[in-house]
# Entry
Amino acid sequence: MGVLGGSFDPIHYGHLRVALEVLQTLPLSTLKFIPCKQQIFKNHAPCAAAHRVAMLKLAIAGVPAFEIETCEIQRETPSYMVDTLATLQQAYPQQTLCLIIGADAAQGFDTWHQWESIFSLAHLVVVARPDYDIKTIPWLQPQLLQRQVFFPDALCQEKAGKILIFPTSLLAISAQAIRRQLANHHSPRFLLPDAVLNYIHQHHLYERV
# Structure
């Protein structure tokens, strides 16, 4: 099972293309999008959870293997990924979990709450992103020596603890840039699904920075 967390504020083609390429390449039956209540390392207050979930539903319609998991939104405590993975492991004990993070998030992975415990719960799939050199991430280099695998099928051989560097189509799209365009009355069309953009306009979202 793939696990892709984030604020998805809003969901865009950068998220969706990575998710699809991971789903098609890794031995996964499902990929769960997990919108957080509030990201720990971001000061930006996200759009209301109900709107972000609604936009996610519109974006992933037609891809049966894409699912939404709302456990972090429902949780009263902060959105710690280690807790989310433990919850998923308990709910799906037969599944192997693959946590998907971008190279930008990987830069600060060693500051995540109980980050080392994540390797006992899931494999880590680090997705290449524009302008981020994975080779320069200090914490990652010793972990790669111990944990790196080079082929997706290798993730099936153990329950957790491996790292796969995953090259994808590099789409330099950011939710922050989309929000800024909308606040400036510019169109972010072709950066996110039309259904999501229509929802944003319908509900007057992101009209202010």
Notes: Strands lie at 2-6, 31-35, 66-68, 98-102, 123-127, 148-149, 163-166. The mean pLDDT is 92. Residues 2-202 form a domain with the Rossmann fold fold (CATH 3.40.50.620). Helices lie at 13-25, 49-60, 71-74, 81-91, 103-106, 140-147, 175-183, 194-202.
